[in-house]
Write a structure and sequence with these properties.
Blueprint: H1 11-16, H2 60-73, E1 77-81, H3 84-93, E2 100-104, H4 109-122, E3 125-129, H5 134-144, E4 148-152, H6 164-173, E5 177-181, H7 186-189, E6 199-203, E7 217-221, H8 227-239, H9 245-255, H10 258-277, E8 282-286, H11 296-302, E9 310-315, H12 318-328, E10 333-334, E11 344-347, H13 348-351, E12 361-365, H14 371-382
Parallel strand pairs: 2-3, 2-4, 4-5, 5-6, 10-11
Antiparallel strand pairs: 1-7, 6-7, 8-9, 9-12, 11-12
Helix pairs in contact: 2-9, 3-4, 5-6, 12-14
The structure holds pyridoxal-5'-phosphate.
Pyridoxal-5'-phosphate (PLP) binds next to helix 3 and helix 4.
Length: 384
């Protein structure tokens, strides 16, 4: 197949075939793990294999993941990291001291907490804004001229939908870059770069790997030559936030079923959202697939083939009623994280008490189980 034809392949084909990678030495249909940390040079002191010198900068298994991810994202290049937060940190470390950044409010709490601390220590001006409010975001860009804006869509755990294209235009007009945390969407549902984002970020710990057994992060860039992207690469390769070969190999394996898993998780989550919406013990359901969700029309335009695994709902009766229901769940594991094949439930208020999360809010990460089994479990836990 001519290399150009790769661009025309669908995500399911790219993922299932790991972008065509095989074990060249044996003909195996699965690429091998390369644990070597260093690589030989020939008699003339030229690397025996072009590009392989030392594993902090030249990691064959990491490169395989990056190749598949870049194709799924429609990106010029991708970079993997040992966690999602390591990817977040690599972006912010590439900013000059004294810069100004705009960050969406009420996103994943770990991101917000780290950015606040980092910006304080680095003398970076941090402006937090509700990016799902495009007018507010646009006004903040015009007023503060940020070097970088950070959004997350759908946001965790509020499920707010951000208009990537409008936000990209606004920050570009102000001379800055847009980075979009697309963890809950995965590139299967939304390719942020095609909507104008400069960099798409993922906690690959979540849907990309999908089996709750690898901690990893990823960035993808529309432009491989930009100074900002090169600064991130230099930071990763010299400061050493490198994904290990075993984790990279597992991640590549997990990504083979990504489109299939995302499709099933989204179908299941939609069914659960509709069930919960009609449940007498439930106050509110936050899921972009529901027609009355404030971001539904935008999500329909921006997300392709479903609305993802993440769903939040508020149980009537506050924290006590929510925790009682959680205690009765049999199939949903009481655990944090999202995007794995198994369904999880989290009482988010127990984890982040000062961020305005309703006391009765339960966040579900809907897996690939049979939806009727999950609905029965929710039914018995809530009391039908
Ligand atoms: N971004 C989002 C939306 C997340 O949900 C998470 C983790 O929960 C992260 C980033 C951080 O990723 P990691 O846990 O892989 O460091």
């Amino acid at each position: 197949m001519a290399p150009n034809d790769l661009d025309k392949l669908h995500p399911a084909t790219i993922a299932a075939q790991a972008a065509g990678m095989l074990d060249d030495a044996t003909g195996g249909v699965v690429p091998p793990i390369h644990p070597a940390t260093t690589f030989v040079r020939d008699e003339s002191y030229v690397p025996a294999v072009d590009g392989n010198i030392y594993a902090r900068s030249h990691a064959p298994n990491g490169r395989m993941v990056e190749k598949v991810l870049a194709q799924l994202e429609g990106a010029a290049e991708a970079m993997v990291f040992p966690s999602g937060m390591a990817a977040v940190a690599a972006v912010f470390r590439a900013l000059p001291a004294g810069a100004c950044v705009l960050v969406q409010s009420q996103i994943y709490w770990g991101t917000t907490a780290w950015i606040r601390d980092f910006c304080t220590r680095r003398g970076i001006t941090l402006v937090e804004v509700e990016a799902a409010d495009t007018e507010a975001f646009t006004a903040a860009c015009a007023a503060h001229k940020p070097a970088l804006a950070w959004v997350e869509t759908p946001s965790n755990p509020w499920l707010r939908i951000v208009d990537i294209s409008a936000c990209a235009d606004a920050v570009h007009r102000a001379g800055g870059l847009l980075v979009a945390d697309m963890t809950t969407s995965t590139p299967v549902l939304t390719r942020a770069l095609s909507f104008g984002a400069d960099i798409a970020m993922h906690s690959a710990t979540k849907g990309l790997n999908g089996h709750s057994d690898v901690l990893a992060g990823a960035l993808s860039s529309a432009n491989a030559d930009s100074a900002f992207w090169q600064a991130i690469r230099t930071d990763r390769d010299t400061a050493g936030a490198v994904l290990g070969p075993f984790e990279a190999w597992l991640l590549l394996r997990g990504m083979r079923t990504l489109p299939l898993r995302v499709e099933r998780m989204s179908t299941n989550a939609q069914k659960l959202a509709e069930y919960l919406r009609d449940h007498p013990r439930v106050d509110t359901v936050l899921y972009p697939g529901l027609p009355d969700h404030t971001g539904h029309a935008l999500a329909c335009a921006q997300m392709q083939g479903g609305f993802g695994p993440l769903l939040s709902f508020v149980v009537k009766g506050g924290a006590e009623a929510a925790l009682d229901a959680v205690a009765r769940l049999q199939l949903f594991h009481r655990a944090t994280s999202l995007g794995g094949v198994e369904s999880l439930v989290e009482h988010r208020h127990t984890i982040e008490q000062h961020t305005g999360i309703p006391e009765g809010l339960l966040r579900l990460s809907v897996g690939i189980e049979n939806a009727d089994d999950l609905i029965d479990d929710l039914g018995q836990a809530l009391g039908q």
